[in-house]
Amino acid sequence: MSKSIRFTPRMGLIAVVVAMALGGTAQATDITGAGSSFVYPVISKWSASYAEKTGNHVNYQSIGSGGGIAQIKAGTVDFGASDMPLDEATLDKFGLGQFPDVIGGIVPAFNVSGVAAGKMVLDGPTLARIYLGEITKWNDPAIAALNKGLKLPDAKITVVHRSDGSGTTFNFSDYLSKVSATWKSKVGEGTAVKWPVGIGGKGNEGVSAYIKQIPNSIGYVEYAYALQNHIGYAVMKNAAGKVVEPKTASFQAAAATADWAHAKNFNLLMTNAPGAEAWPITATSWVIMYKQPKNEANSKVALDFFKWAYANGQPQAKALDYVPLPAPLVKQIEGYWKAEFKL
Amino acid sequence: MQANPIDTRQPSTEHRSRADTRHDALFRRLLKGCALLVLAALLGAALSTLWGGREVLFGQGLHFLTSSAWDPVNDDYGAWAPVFGTLVTSLIALILAVPTSFGIALFLTEIAPAWLRSPVATAIELLASIPSIIYGMWGLFVFVPFMSRIEPTLSDTLGRIPLIGKLFQGPPLGLGLLTAGIVLAVMILPFICSVMREVFRTVPTRLKESSYALGSTTWEVVWDIVLPYTRSAVIGGIFLGLGRALGETMAVTFVLGNSYDITSSLLMPGTTISSAIANEFNEAVGVHRSALIALGFLLFVVTFVVLLIARLMLRQLARKEGR
């Protein structure tokens, strides 16, 4: 921001033009991005506000992470967005860099009559055993031990998962892999996996609808969907052994306590984060860009867009139930830009 | 045109007919081009799915066709579960939709009073124009809860019958093969029904009147006169509906439960070829993508085989009728 303070009085430019100057262009620029559907709602909101401020348009196509990675590799877009980070070898091979954009929480959601939202406690190993089909009844001793005093029905659990490939599934299965050796060896992690049990709903809305309609079901959805659909969500015992609620603070705690400092290229999943207040299934998505892009001007605008979003995009993100990145992480990302991007 | 003798006595006519011949040839070529375009598009689509799926089709070969595993993490793919789901849901749809369409079409052509015919016919044609996503939404939010209420009754009644009882036992989830089949039946009904109604109307009145005059009941007229007269067109209509059922995607995805299982119960979830592709294509890379494209190729094969059977049946019928 120091730059704008220096320029504004001397040139006598209005704020809009200053913001453009920051972006490195004199005219409105159209940049394009593509990828993850997880970030689509918030990027399109940001894009509208950013266009009002700067005149630069960010066109984002929600084509899926796989598509986003393919498009940025081919250089047909200015940035890609993926729910899965790329490994170092791939990044180096193509000369790409990546950084997180926004945080979201994934919650186990259930439909058990008589149990209200936030009243059921689950932990990772129990959740993994439910999804492995080892725990089949709600009154199983493992669930009962976590929920003393809660009346659990002697009913069969119907497991619901995503039928479409998704970043939500990737983070959820990654979490289960971290907390259960059986899950890791039998199923593993991916945007789509071989589910041992259960039925598949299409999208967060499909899973929410199934949970609402099928008594004694359990599923996992993005936090916003559990809130909007008024379905019961569970609280989780995290890696530190503390029971935490899904909310902005616990999602941010996961982002803050995850070991970003030692994660090269931010190649780190926030699941099972160590912090005492950290929500265990917290996810982000990564923006992927060329470090030495063919179209420098556009990439500069793209970086400026994310810089603006980190600083000013919080209200829009919160309105959509996303969580902005914590300040130290933003600082680290800006350092990464300076060090890695030749712009 | 060439077959017609050309009047050579009048030069102006000769000039005219030469121009006509030229235009005719041009027109023929244009039409041929249109037809070839369809063939080229079909062949192109089949070959490109074959090419896109080569990694799995040729890499895993028979395993891909016979295995029911679907494990994107370890890149182990088998198409049997989606193929099974596709065939079962389409079969349920046909079993339900064909008699119903037949009934509606008969009612509209033989029994209904004239003032009722055209509104009902229009209503059925409107059903055909509802987009499949709407059927999916209706299925998910209205029909699935309804099915989950009646499924316990199904299990207690039909589920008790020996042999077919197994088909109706299972948890009352509301979604699954049966629900998907019923939604599909509603979707293909207008297609089959429209075709049947159109061809039933082509039966000459004097044939029917003669039969009535000989003392036939309405049912006898329908079964012995109308149906034999229109049999091949009716079967064509049924296969038109079947073709749509095999390829239907969105509506099925919403109510099928999307799990790669092969079960003996119709109340259990399953998956179909097209819904598997629609679900996973977005996020699929590498071998996973190849497996999904290979599934697309399989859908071509399945549809082709089904249509082939239809052709053979029609030919058989034609031979029996001595045509």
Key descriptive features of the protein:
heterodimer; A: alpha/beta; D-Maltodextrin-Binding Protein, domain 2; nine-stranded mixed beta sheet; 15 helices; 12 strands; elongated; B: 323 residues; mainly alpha; MetI-like fold; two-stranded antiparallel sheet; 1% strand; cell inner membrane (chain B)
Task: Offer a quick outline of the entry.
The complex is a heterodimer of chains A (343) and B (323). Chain A is an alpha/beta fold.
Taken together, the total number of domains of chain A comes to 2
CATH-defined architecture of chain B: Orthogonal Bundle
Helical proportion of chain A, percent range: 40-55%
**Unreliable parts of chain B:** none
The CATH superfamily of chain B is MetI-like
Shape of chain B: globular
**H/E series of chain B, N to C?**
HHHEEHHHHHHHHH
What's the overall geometry of chain A? Answer: elongated
Fold-level CATH name of chain B: MetI-like fold
Report on the structure:
The complex is a heterodimer of chains A (343) and B (323). Chain A has two domains: 31-104 and 283-340, 3-Layer(aba) Sandwich (D-Maltodextrin-Binding Protein, domain 2), CATH 3.40.190; 106-257, Periplasmic binding protein-like II (D-Maltodextrin-Binding Protein, domain 2), CATH 3.40.190.10. Helices cover 43% and strands 19% of the residues of chain A. Chain A has helices at residues 2-11, 15-23, 40-54, 65-74, 88-94, 124-132, 141-146, 167-179, 181-186, 203-213, 223-228, 248-257, 296-312, 314-319, 327-340; strands at 30-35, 57-62, 79-82, 96-111, 121-123, 158-162, 199-201, 217-222, 232-233, 235-237, 243-244, 282-290. In chain A, the strands form two sheets. In chain A, strands 1, 2, 3, 4, 6, 7, 8, 9 and 12 form a nine-stranded mixed beta sheet that branches. Chain A has a three-stranded mixed beta sheet with strand order 5-10-11. Chain A is elongated and about 65 Å long. Chain B is globular and about 75 Å long. Helices cover 73% and strands 1% of the residues of chain B. In chain B, a hairpin with a 4-residue loop joins strand 1 (70-71) and strand 2. Chain B is mainly alpha-helical and 323 residues long. Chain B is built from twelve helices and two strands; from the N terminus they run αααββααααααααα. Chain B has a two-stranded antiparallel sheet. Chain B has helices at residues 11-52, 54-57, 62-66, 80-111, 114-128, 132-157, 177-200, 205-213, 218-247, 250-256, 273-280, 287-320; strands at 70-71, 76-77. The interface between A and B is medium-sized, with 34 and 35 residues.
